[in-house]
Amino acid sequence: MKVTIRRSGSALSAYVPKKDLEEPIVKVENEGLWGGFVVLRNGWRLLLPDLPEDTRLPVTVEAKKIVNDAAQEETS
Q1: What residue segments make up the domains of the chain, in order of their start?
Q2: Which one of 6, 27, 37, 65 has the minimum C-beta count within 10 Å?
Q3: InterPro entries from the xrefs (predicted)?
Q4: What is d(CA 34, CA 18) in angstroms, rounded to the nearest whole number?
């Protein structure tokens, strides 16, 4: 699914246009953000692509929603 990651001050958020959903990112697996999962305030876990640490925000990426510890693409 397409997800836009942006920074507002020191906080990160994710916007999912297909769901018209914007949530703060409350946990990141990797300090550099990319190549691991993030957890949104609503409980969603998203697997982000492996991008360079200096990738400028905001950026729209193809992320996968993690369901039951398996990465699956959102189909709805």
Answers
A1: 2-72
A2: 27
A3: NifT, NifT/FixU_barrel-like_dom_sf
A4: 22
